[in-house]
Amino acid sequence: MVGEEGAFVLGWDEVLTEEELSVTLKVLCMSEEEFKEYKEQDGWEDDSEEEEGSTLSNEALSKLKTPCKKLLYDSVLLTLESYGADLKAEQDLLNNKEAYEKLSRREQQALHVRYGQKRILHQLLELVQ
């Protein structure tokens, strides 16, 4: 369902891999009986037209059903736990000119990427709370 990478791509304003996330949330929030019925009816094909015009914008994410929001929330928490430092620590390092300049160019770039990723994840946490 999520392709080879097994990850979803989030942007500041919307989910960039919206089809994969939509299908994944739908399936993971189904009961076993609903899933069997969905598979038997070839539901994978039927939904593409109905959902084609929809986007998973930040507004849409905040309006998801409670089970989907909980699943997303817990997933984001797990992802954030996989990072070595929290958002505040990264921000402190970015704001500490002396410590920042001691980092190699590559470490500085990695810091900016991690910080941006964490900000997006924290934004998603707020949207699905």
From TrEMBL:
Compartments where found: Nucleus
Keywords: Methyltransferase, Nucleus, S-adenosyl-L-methionine, Transferase
Region (Disordered): 38-59
Name used for this protein in its record: N-lysine methyltransferase SETD6
CC per GO annotation: nucleus
Ranges of Acidic residues composition bias in the record: 43-53
Domain Rubisco LSMT substrate-binding: start-end pairs: 4-121
Domain of life: Eukaryota
Organism of derivation: Peucedramus taeniatus (Olive warbler)
GO BP terms in the entry: methylation
Taxonomic lineage: Eukaryota, Metazoa, Chordata, Craniata, Vertebrata
Pfam family, one: Rubis-subs-bind
Gene Ontology terms for molecular function: methyltransferase activity
